Task: structure prediction
Amino acid sequence: RTDKAIEQLRYFLRNVEDKSEQDLRKALIQQLIDILMNGVSERSYMMQLTSPASPSKTSFTGSSFQSNTQFSDKGLCFVPRNVTEDVILLLLLKEAL
Result:
């Protein structure tokens, strides 16, 4: 399923931080961009944002960050509200590598 693929890619992106693996990170980001642009509708993306976050989930959804008031109240992180914002953020991250 698309949800599982997105979850896995986000998990790997959060956990692969070695400088020697920048090419891998770029490839993973590009795969995630492709999935978001071609396989996720705005409606299903919004459903991911509004579904309750469970502690066992490894996905990087807006709801998991919104429940963490330590960050969201202080504005220390940007949480994309739609597919377009998510893709733009990923493109910026990819370019920064």
